[in-house]
Amino acid sequence: METKGSKEVEEKPEDEAEALKQELAELRKRNEDLLTRLKYMQADMENYRKRMDKELKDAGESLAKGLLARLLVVQDELDLAAKHAEEEGREGDALKEGIAMVRRNLQTAMESVGLERIESVGKPFDPAFHEAVEKVQGDSKVKDTVVEEIRPGFTFRGTLLRPSMVKVQLASKAPKEEMEDE
Predict the structure, then answer these.
(1) Are 141 and 170 in contact (CB under 8 A)?
(2) Architecture of the domain defined by 116-182
(3) Is the CB of residue 153 less than 8 Å from the CB of residue 163?
(4) Is residue 145 helix, strand or coil?
(5) For residues 128, 131, 134 and 137, what is the CA-based torsion angle, rounded to 10 degrees?
(6) For residue 136, what are the CA distances in angstroms to 2, 9, 139?
(7) In terms of DSSP bridges, do strands 130-137 and 164-170 run parallel, antiparallel, or are they unpaired?
(8) Confidence of residue 165 (pLDDT cuts 50, 70, 90)
(9) Are 134 and 167 in contact (CB under 8 A)?
C-alpha cells in the first residue's frame, strides 16, 4: 500500500503544479489584456485632451472674430466722425484730436489680438481680398489695379474678416481681345 499511497502523493504535487502553471498563464493573459486596455484608454484620453484644446482655441478665435467684426463698424463710424470734424475747420480741433486718440487706441487694441489691415491701393485687384464698388478704364496693359480704397478690409490671424471696398482701374485690352469680348 505504501507504493500506492506514495504514488498518489507524488501525482498530487504534479497536478497541483500543473494547475498553478495554468492559473499563472491565465493571470498573465488577463494582466496583458488589462495593460492593453489601459494603453487604449490613455491614448483615448490624450486624443480627448487634444480635441478639447483645439475646440477651446477655435471657440476663442470665433468669439474674437465676432467681436472684431462689431468693432470694425465702430471704427468706420469714428472715421466718418473724424472726416466730418475735419470739414468743420478750426472749431472742431478738440473734437478731431479726441476722435483721433480713440481711433488710435481702438486700432492698437484690435491689432494686439491679430487684426491686420489689407493694403490695397496700388496693388493688383484680388477678388479674394477686394470688393470692387467702382471701375474706371485705365491705360495700363498689365493688370486691374486698385486706385482708391473706399472702406478698408481686414484679416484676422491670416483669414479674411472683411474685404476692402475699392475703386479699380481696369487694364486696357488689346484690340484683338476687345473684339473677342464683343
Answers:
(1) no
(2) Roll (2.30)
(3) yes
(4) strand
(5) 0
(6) 121, 111, 10
(7) parallel
(8) very high
(9) yes
CB-CB contact of 156 with 115 (8 Å): yes
Alpha helices in the chain (DSSP H): 2-88, 93-112, 175-181
Indicate the pLDDT class of residue 167, thresholds 50, 70 and 90: very high
Backbone angles phi, psi at 133, to 5 degrees: -105, -15
Which residues, in sequence order, are CB contacts of 128 under 8 Å at separation 6+?
Answer: 160, 163
Domain boundaries, the chain: 1-113, 116-182
Query: Euclidean distance between the first and final Cα of the chain, in Å?
Result: 122
Number of CB atoms found within 10 A of residue 6's CB: 10
163 burial type by CB count under 10 A (0-12 exposed, 13-18 middle, 19+ buried): buried
